[in-house]
Structures are given as C-alpha cells and as structure tokens.
Amino acid sequence: MATYKLFLIACLVTLSSTIMIKTCSASRHLLQQQPLPQIPNMPIPTTGLPPLPSTLPQPTLPTIPTSIPPLPSTLPQPTLPTIPTSIPPLPSTFPKPTLPTIPTSIPPLPSTLPQPTLPTSTAPFSMPTLPSFPTTIPSLPTSFPSIPFFSPPPTTTASSP
Fold it and tell me: Which range is the signal sequence, renumbered to this chain (predicted)?
C-alpha cells in the first residue's frame, strides 16, 4: 500500500513538472515573436521643487585682513596698590589671659574607708543525696552460642622462617 502511494505521488510530481515546463516554454516562444511595446520617455519624478538654475549666484564672503593692526604705543598704565615696606610694630601691651590655677598638692586620702558590709548569715552547703547503685555486678554467662562466621580460626602451627 505504501509503495502504491509513493508511486502515485511520483507520477503527480512528474506530470505537474512536465506541464509547467511546457507552459513556460510556450509563453517564452510567444513573447519572442511579439514585438515589445514602446515605452514613452517618462520625465524623472521630482520632489516638487523647481529645477535649479545652472549658474547660482556666489555669496560674497567677508574679507579677512592679512595684517594685524599695530598696538597703540601708549597704553594706560594701571595703578598698582602700594605695599608698605615696613611692618607696623605690635602693641606692647596685650591683655593677659586669665589661666586657671592648678593645685600643686594632692589632697590626702581619707585614712578610714568605710568597710563593705558582708552577709552574716548564710545557709550551710549541703551535699545532695545521690541515688544508690547496686554494689554487686551480675556474673557473665560462661558459654556463648557459637556463630561460625565469628568464631576464631582453628589454631595452626606456623613454622617461622
């Protein structure tokens, strides 16, 4: 069934390709026999502006002098402030600042300092009672069940080299 569908699709593709090729070659043959119509010369579309004249008026540029005019020989001299050459003397009497007086001796410490008051009655310390433990240790069983995996290997006499 699948091969039948593939065969049918291949036939349809071949048939449509053949028809398209024949149609294209026939239209080409007709176009070659018929003369092309003459297209009148169309004016180049403009953006709506009138055409520019061939000779535009040249704008006049300002002339730049090539030589710098001379500076005037007599410029007004600025008046400079006069700087005194001698420093005026400082006044000989300034008001004296009042400084705080620093004591030269340390005051004596009091000979009797108040003693701190200690608590006089304290509860005597008592040891808490501990729980009683048994004094005898139970005896361990003397025979345990034998587990082959955990049992010690049999003793063998090994010869030392």
Answer: 1-26
d(CA 74, CA 76): 6
Q: Which tokens hold the place of 10?
A: 């291949």
- Which residue shows structure tokens 């608590």? 119
Backbone angles phi, psi at 125, to 5 degrees: -80, 130
Three-class DSSP category at 105: coil
pTM: 0.22
Q: How many CA atoms lie within 13 A of 92 on its CB side?
A: 0
For residue 31, what are the CA distances in angstroms to 21, 23, 25, 37? 15, 12, 10, 11
Cα 139 to Cα 160: distance, rounded to the nearest angstrom: 40
